Amino acid sequence: MVQKAKILLVDDRPENLLALEAILSALDQTLVRASSGEEALKALLTDDFAVILLDVQMPGMDGFETAAHIKRRERTRDIPIIFLTAINHGPHHTFRGYAAGAVDYISKPFDPWVLRAKVSVFVELYMKNCQLREQAALLRLQLEGGGGKAAADGAKESPGLLAELSARLAAVEEQAEALSKQLDDESADAAAVATAAHLERKLTGLRRALDALEPGTGSGPPSVTSQS
């Protein structure tokens, strides 16, 4: 069963949060509300999020300050942030948003279809990364369970397990390739393209590790990491 991705919505106005929920409900993911920067940071302490939609103008800790705190934390620094703002003070204001770590900067009122499409890209990337970590963990357990070369030898004697791992990985590879083509076609944000490229590199490494376990390769257990 595939778990739903969590999307953090940060805005001090309840009506804006309600509007965002209406727009993003079609994605069928878990939407989490936060009415302030402080509340958003608390939510980020315990949960993992695919993307954050962050209002710029909020009383107390504004969006820029909130983003700065998010990017300083090792746990949350890589979560994509999309800034939402009702004002536009020109290029300098926009630059400040990107400097704070945003992957996108959208002015209100925004096109619901465009916002939903942008969010969906980051949700897909998040889900692919989750699948990749699961495959890497499964392979690592297989290698470590019997200790070093013995585990690798055991894996080679279990073609059923190797076939299952290979099939699961192939499905993720196919989805990642389709997503990369979609990003190229849509001239997506540089951050999304870079994340997709990183995912493909991790998939390539995992595929090589699986190939090394195939009978007749003569190689020892490969080094597999689940870091993203």
Automatic annotation (TrEMBL):
Residues 6-123 form the Response regulatory domain. PROSITE patterns: RESPONSE_REGULATORY. The modification 4-aspartylphosphate is found at D55. It comes from the Bacteria. Signal peptide: none annotated. Transmembrane segments: none annotated. Keywords: Coiled coil, Phosphoprotein. Residues 162-189 form a coiled coil. PANTHER family: RESPONSE REGULATORY DOMAIN-CONTAINING PROTEIN, STRESS RESPONSE REGULATOR PROTEIN 1. This is Response regulator. It comes from Streptomyces phaeoluteigriseus.
